[in-house]
Amino acid sequence: MTDLKIPTAGDAVSELQLVEWIAENGAHINEGDVLYSIESDKSVLDVESPASGKLVILERAGEIFPIGHLVGRIESRWPHSVAGMHRDTLPAVVQGAICNLFAWVEVA
Description:
108 residues, alpha+beta, CATH 2.40.50.100, four-stranded antiparallel sheet
């Protein structure tokens, strides 16, 4: 799971407005997709997803939040214990399933 927090926007800024959610709650998100827009007194910035997975929105647009406030999460398909593993550390049954999948894709 990856937390989505209000990012820093400069040394003098202590809070930002979450202007709008561009992605919808529950949508599948890819790393780099634009999720939401934030606004300071000087500009509006789009915030991209740091990870792929399902978007869970925790806060409404239109509100002002302090820097670092949790506004949403990206839930990955795999638990971190599996998603972060190197291929050689995966259980043999998982490695076999992955090899079979790639063999099937090459044939198709």
